[in-house]
Amino acid sequence: MLIAYDSKTGNVERFVGKLNVPSVKIEENMTIDEPFVLVTYTTGFGQPPEKVLHFLKRNYRRLAGVSASGNRNWGNNFAVSADRIARMYGVPVLTKFELSGTSRDVEQFMKEMSAVASY
C-alpha cells in the first residue's frame, strides 16, 4: 500500500524512510488513484496541517488509515491530528509516534498497515 505523507521538521519523513515501502510526499493539488495510508504531523494545539486538509479534500476516498507524529510534551494533544482526521473521514488511527519514531513504532505501523491493506 502507498504511504502519502507530509513533514514539516523532517521527523515524519525520517519515519517514512524507515518503512521501506512506496511513499509520496503530498502536494495540495495532487491526486492519488490508489488506496493509501496518510502519515502526518500535528501542528498548533492538535490540528492537522492545512496542506494535509487540502490534500484530503481531493483524495479522501482512497484514504485507508492515518498515523501522526507528535511530541509527548503536549499531553492529551499528542499526535491528536490523527484522531481528528480519523473522525473526519471514518478511517482508523494506525499509530501515533513521537518525533521520528522508534523501531517498535515502525513495527507497529507495518502491522497495522498490513491489517488495513488486507481489509
Automatic annotation (TrEMBL):
Gene3D superfamilies: 3.40.50.360. InterPro entries: Flavoprotein-like_sf (IPR029039), RNR_Ib_NrdI_bac (IPR020852), RNR_NrdI (IPR004465). It comes from the Bacteria. Probably involved in ribonucleotide reductase function. Belongs to the NrdI family. This is Protein NrdI. It comes from Paenibacillus konkukensis. The gene is nrdI.
